[in-house]
Write a structure and sequence with these properties.
8-stranded mixed β-sheet, alpha/beta, Nucleotidyltransferase, domain 5, 39% helix, 20% strand, single chain, 2 domains, globular, 6-stranded mixed β-sheet, binds adenosine-5'-diphosphate, 14 strands
Length: 400
């Protein structure tokens, strides 16, 4: 049973083909620079011996339709998919489902219209997803297609967590509220963590920390999200590679007054020039570590600000949950950066969180326990797999 997972943007399409019986990716890749003269397709194919073979081709890709044709060829030659009609289903990642989508949705005209309707909430993402969905519907009209939303997992938040204290009309008319993102990843690692603890998901309380270029925290009570750090947009919450995370909204107006910066300029700077990059000039944590190790005080401060913000959220979500069974680290930084995990957990012994330095340094693979034996709260490092989670949710949705 094969499921294709697509993440379409306005100028790129990422694809992964899963063999669901083995829960394994058999082929994948990305078509980039769609609509430009110098398109690129990078293909990844799993060989019979299990190794991954990667190749890159450069050629013009005038449209998403052309991108799908190229992808079809790549899946035929590399993924053993001789006919797209043999797919069990196609799952599409969609960033924003607004207040409408609480779960994955089987794509039809009404779902497409609803994704379009909430597009103003994610102007950089939803329009690109829609182009991809339309191209996929055209390329494989008989294959069931499902939209899986980054926001859906967080739709269980109570109003006290998702409402902002702003004029009511902003909420009722413009849907200004907290939505939260990375939901697919938070859901996946929460399930893996519960399995590991030998508990059913509805019996565990977790704080999940998705720390990649984008970063977010979620408080998960009995398997359901009750609060999360991102907001109306993915700009809020933790310090990220290039995004500021939380700040006083008055900064925007102050800069307008004293520096003559238009709101759009400030918005771009908060998204692309802030976070670790704003603090020390580098957005990639590995680079920040290199600079800090070489004695750059700005880089050291960037690591401290990054870890301190997360620590505050762990404290806040401990209060939200009352009892925490595990803290779960995931994504590029969460999975790989032992130094930041140590900085984040430092001083949290009072909350029952004690890391084991040796285990922390040697964490690897799909899931590792990194807490000390006396730690009341488990600390887990779980490798996320958003695409596999999308594939599984797609299958569940098609089966109803
Ligand atoms: P995204 O998917 O949001 O683009 P990732 O989850 O790939 O981001 O995370 C990117 C971040 O993870 C970067 O800051 C990068 O430095 C960090 N990262 C990735 N691999 C490692 C590693 N082996 N050690 C430390 N940090 C890593």
């Amino acid at each position: 049973m094969k499921v294709l997972v697509l993440n379409s943007g306005s100028s790129s399409v990422k694809y992964r083909l899963f063999e669901m019986d083995r829960r394994e990716e058999v082929a994948g890749g990305v078509v980039e620079r769609i609509g430009e003269p110098d398109g690129v397709i990078s293909e990844r194919v799993r060989r019979a011996d299990g190794s991954l073979d990667t190749s890159v081709r450069r050629l013009p890709v005038p449209s998403h339709r052309a991108a799908f044709a190229l992808m079809g060829e790549a899946l035929r030659s590399g993924g053993g998919l001789d006919d797209p009609r043999r797919l069990y289903a196609i799952g599409h990642r969609v960033v924003h489902g607004g207040p409408v989508f609480r779960a994955p949705a089987r794509i039809d005209a009404a779902v497409v219209a609803a994704i379009r309707e909430v597009a103003p909430l994610a102007p950089l993402h939803n329009p690109g997803h829609l182009v991809g969905i339309e191209a996929a519907l055209e390329a494989a009209p008989d294959v069931p297609q499902v939209a899986v939303f980054d926001t859906a997992f967080h739709q269980t938040m109570p109003a006290r967590a998702y409402r902002y204290a702003v004029p009511e009309e902003w909420y009722t008319r413009y849907r200004v509220r907290r939505y939260g993102f990375h939901g697919t990843s938070h859901a996946y690692v929460a399930r893996r963590a519960a399995d590991h603890l030998g508990r059913s998901l509805d019996g565990v309380n977790l704080i999940t920390l998705h720390l990649g270029n984008g970063a977010s925290a979620a408080a998960v009570q009995g398997g359901r999200c009750v609060d999360t750090s991102m907001g109306l947009t993915p700009l809020a919450g933790l310090v990220m590679g290039t995004r500021s995370g939380d700040l006083d909204p008055a900064v925007v107006f102050y800069l307008g007054r004293v520096a003559g910066l238009e709101p759009a300029r400030v918005e771009a700077a908060l998204n692309q020039e802030s976070g670790l990059k704003g603090l020390c000039g580098a957005h990639d944590v590995r680079e920040v570590h290199r600079a800090a190790d070489a004695g750059d005080p700005r880089a050291l401060l960037a690591l401290e600000v990054f870890a301190y913000r997360i620590r505050k959220y762990v404290g806040a979500y401990t209060a939200v949950l009352g009892r925490v069974d595990a803290i779960v680290f995931t994504a590029g930084i969460g999975e790989n950066d032992a130094d930041l995990r140590r900085r984040i957990c430092e001083g949290l012994e009072g909350l029952g969180i004690t890391l084991d330095e040796e285990r922390n340094r040697s964490a690897a693979g799909e899931l590792s326990e990194v807490h000390a034996p006396q730690s009341r709260v488990a600390v887990l490092v779980v490798r996320t797999n958003e695409e596999l989670e999308i594939a599984e949710q797609t299958v569940a949705c098609v089966r109803g």
